[in-house]
Amino acid sequence: MGVTIALPAYGEEENLKVLLPKIKENAEKLGEPYEIIVVDAAEPLDDTETVCKVCGVKYVRRVGNNFGDALATIPRVASMDKILVMDADGSHDPVYIPDIHRKFIEEQADVCIGSRYTEGGVTHDSPKSVFMSEILNTTFRLALGFKAKDISGNFRMYDAAQLRAVKITKPNYDVLQEILFRLYRNNPKLRVVETPIEFKKRRSGESKRKLLPFIMNYGRTLAEFTYERFRNFILYGVIGVAGMAVDWSTAMAAFKASSMGEEAASLCGNVAGFLFNFVLNTFLNFKKSDKLFARFISYAIICVGGMAVSTGLIALLKSKFAFGPLKLGVLIFIALVQYVLNKKITYK
Q1: pLDDT at 182
Q2: Are residues 174 and 256 in the same domain?
Q3: Helices 262-280 & 292-317 angle (0-180, nearest 10)
Q4: In this structure, is residue 15 part of a structural domain?
Q5: What b/e readout covers 61-91, taking b as 16+ CB neighbours within 10 angstroms?
Q6: Where among 209, 238, 260 does a domain terminate?
Q7: What is the mean pLDDT of each successive set of 10 residues along the chain, which is 348 residues long?
Q8: Can you say how many angstroms the Cα of residue 268 is from the centroid of all Cα atoms in its chain?
Q9: Which domain holds residue 119?
Q10: Residues 6+ apart with CB under 8 A from 293
Q11: ∠ Cα 158 185 299 (to 5°)
């Protein structure tokens, strides 16, 4: 039990001289054991190590020199069951450490964010930075389903076990979104809470962020995570369209190659399309190879139920809509319902 307070640092000697004593002062208010770790650059840029020794805090070097490398190092060197990460440039005031800790405990949270944008939060960033940050936060929230308002801030407390289970791959500041995204993927019931902070300008030194790489990284990351989030749905649709092609071609081939009637040929197409969809969704899309018989029965029941419902809807609405648009609308609706049911039941 306890709290690891970790700071990624990159040439922050002067800021740490002021910051570390304040962190220790506020960490004493937590009421449980704590440790403070500074994660410096792989090749030191200043005398941060001496500052850490004077202040009595742990000093480690990251493997690699990117911001993401520093965040990936923290879970490996932390020894407590809670990890609080904050910036080393003075923009995160240590006075909020007890608030973040209290909120984390009281709300039984998995992540607590010291937030600029929740009610009561304040930021002293430039108008351009605030504008970009608002666009970034809103876009990621909508695309990835995040609930928090400040998903680009680094003042956060994590459940250490869950953070250690995250494989961090992003080298730049988009790692902050990656961590949240991976936490949500590992734990769909992840509880993220926020508490207001005042975000200050850095005390001294220059920002490490470069505008163009910053924008490009976030664009790539957003596209990558959006696809990953909706991958099953996208593939389900692609497989469904391919399945319709298999259904149609099989039915036509059966009709032309034998004396069977249209109904029997159509049934052959239905069976072929169904088997095609089931096999590809099971082994390619959802990648499930266990309980095949039970999954097959579940998939079949959902498909037959979908056909019954679609027939009923068409019978109910055919007097109000033209058949073509009605059939298309019903197909889309039933496909969406079947996707949700298969994901939650057949492939849970």
Answers
A1: 96
A2: no
A3: 130
A4: yes
A5: bbeeebbbbbbbbbbeebebebbbbbbbbbb
A6: 209
A7: 96 94 97 97 93 96 92 96 96 97 97 95 84 86 89 95 95 93 94 95 59 73 92 93 88 79 78 93 94 95 88 84 79 88 93
A8: 42
A9: 3-209
A10: none
A11: 155
* Of 144, 158, 78, 76, residue with least CA distance to 114: 158
The alpha carbon of 221 is separated from its chain's Cα centroid by a whole number of angstroms, namely 11
Same domain, 175 and 267: no
DSSP three-state, residue 306? helix
Distance in angstroms (rounded) separating the CA atoms of residues 66 and 340 = 40
Q: What is the CA radius of gyration of the chain?
A: 27
Note the pLDDT of residue 210. 56
Per-residue pLDDT, 207: 55
Question: Residue 310: what pLDDT?
Answer: 82
The pLDDT, as a whole number, for residue 325 is: 81
Strand (E) or helix (H) holding 199 = strand 198-199
Residue 259: other Cβ atoms inside 10 A = 6
How far apart are alpha carbons 322 and 345 in whole angstroms? 34
CATH of the domain at 190: 3.90.550.10
Rounded Cα distance between 255 and 18, Å, is 83
pLDDT, position 135 = 85
User: Total structural domains in the chain?
Assistant: 2
Same domain, 103 and 237: no
Distance of alpha carbon 200 from its chain centroid, rounded?
Answer: 27
Clarify whether residues 188 and 280 are in a common domain.
Answer: no
Buried b (16+ CB within 10 A) or exposed e, 157-191: bbbbebbeebebebbbbbbbbbbbbbbbeeeeebe
289/329 same-domain check: yes
Distance set, CA 54 to CA 19, 21, 58 (Å): 13, 10, 11
Query: Three-state secondary structure along 228-281?
Result: HHHHHHHHHHHHHHHHHHHHHHHHHHHHHHCCCCHHHHHHHHHHHHHHHHHHHH
| 120 secondary structure, DSSP code | T
Q: Are residues 305 and 198 in the same domain?
A: no
